[in-house]
Amino acid sequence: MSIRDARALVFDVFGTVVDWRGSVIREGEALSRAKGLTVDWPRFADEWRREGYGDAIARIRRGEAPFELADALHRRKLGELLARHGIVGLSDAEVDHFNRVWHRLQPWPDSVPGLARLKTRYVVAPLSNGNFALLTNMARHAGLPWDCILSAELFGAYKTDPATYLGAARLLGLEPGQVVMVAAHSPDLRAAQALGLPTAFVSRPFEHGPDGRAAPPDGSFDLVVNSFLELADKLGC
Amino acid sequence: MSIRDARALVFDVFGTVVDWRGSVIREGEALSRAKGLTVDWPRFADEWRREGYGDAIARIRRGEAPFELADALHRRKLGELLARHGIVGLSDAEVDHFNRVWHRLQPWPDSVPGLARLKTRYVVAPLSNGNFALLTNMARHAGLPWDCILSAELFGAYKTDPATYLGAARLLGLEPGQVVMVAAHSPDLRAAQALGLPTAFVSRPFEHGPDGRAAPPDGSFDLVVNSFLELADKLGC
Question: SS3 of B195, please?
Fold first, then answer.
């Protein structure tokens, strides 16, 4: 079966669909202006992402910590980072609002027009470790035209656990071979591929900042593209 | 708190958002023309809905049958009804396609424009006993602008089980009092209301056919309207 015969495309979100780093930095800089703060926001964003999300999810995946939602993981680390970076005087409501910056991440320029084209032929959905409400709110904020929201929360397990990829196919009423995993991260794609999902690697050279370099695909994927528009071209949408 | 301060609206679907009866009859009549059949499609539709869905779900709710998806319940009854109505000679693929008429139900005329207005201020989602794939496919087919799909399948329980209403609020990251249940059926609304959800009754006089009469609301609900457009008016959207 050709990848074009698939029925659905599921997308990694943080880094693949949205620019988490640039979005956190922008909201941080706005907070700095409003409150008269001096903060190294790029460093703050990188620490929040790596320690608060990546490391925390890795512990959950290894069974060293119970399953918790991304919102809660982000909120706990945010408290630590505010202290580490000397940010004081925010109200609880202001801290909670800033924690929800992850619900307000901005899409890459090609994400919305690319998804709109892909949606004409395929069911399109996120398949993200972000929690269900985070992904739902993000879609409204960023105008992402998802057909449904698929979150690790629905499966009580984080990618790259097989329960997430297989659970997505099951909820869509499809076989794994009918669901393409789209991501900018090779480990995500390799895990999906091992379960029979077709795979599309999207290069996102600026995920880690303007000086970043594109990580080449580490694996043999069905498609390798530079944008969702190129993905739509290759899938005939 | 006023109902206007809610953050999300969740909708019963079969009968409230879409005209299941008219849609099944129309596809049945098209099948009759294509195959040279003579079938009482209104009776067929009513039996399919009542025996295949309503009765089956009632048995599951009473614990007399294991949880099964609406697609499977529909498919089993469809086999019986084809025999009962003397419909023979359909291939398995044709029967499966006809079973998926429930994925292709047509919205009431006000559903899509009403949801589009309501979506400007509220998260809008189905909260239906239809399975996740059915609701996802229906949204694509009917152009329903949901923000996410909430299905009884996600909770392993059918409305009016409290797990469905409370599970919807939990996935949306909201309190029950922030999630309005919208339905044309009073038992659905009373069950939601008992758990603290605000409620909106929508009159759908033609759910059971052109000779049907509007069932008046059986309960005391926060809003009683005749269409999603009137609901949008009352909610200031």
Answer: coil
- Indicate yes or no: CB of A133 within 8 angstroms of CB of B174: yes
> In chain B, which residues have their Cβ closer than 8 Å to the Cβ of A125?
136
Query: What is the Cβ-side half-sphere exposure of residue B13, based on CA atoms within 13 angstroms?
Result: 27
Q: Is B194 in contact with B176 (CB distance < 8 Å)?
A: no
Regarding whether A179 and A163 lie in a shared domain, the answer is yes
| Contact between B173 and A148 using a beta-carbon 8 Å cutoff | no
- A172 and chain B in contact, CB less than 8 A: yes
What is the distance between the alpha carbons of residues A216 and A52, in angstroms, rounded to a whole number? Answer: 26
State whether residue B2 is helix, strand or coil.
Answer: coil
Q: Which of A103, A130, A152 is the last residue of a domain?
A: A103
A60-86 pLDDT, tens digit per residue, is 999 999 999 999 999 999 999 999 999
Measured CA to CA, the distance from residue A160 to residue A152 in angstroms comes to 10
Domain span at residue A58 reads 20-103
Task: Give the pLDDT confidence of A90-125 residue by residue, as tens digits.
Answer: 999 999 999 999 999 999 999 999 999 999 999 999
Question: Is residue B124 classed exposed, middle or buried when 0-12, 13-18 and 19+ CB atoms within 10 A define those classes?
Answer: buried
Nearest CA to B151 out of B123, B130, B167 is that of B130
- Minimal CA separation from B168 to chain A, in Å: 10
The enclosing domain of A59 has a CATH number of: 1.10.150.240
Q: Is some CB atom of chain A closer than 8 A to the CB atom of B154?
A: yes
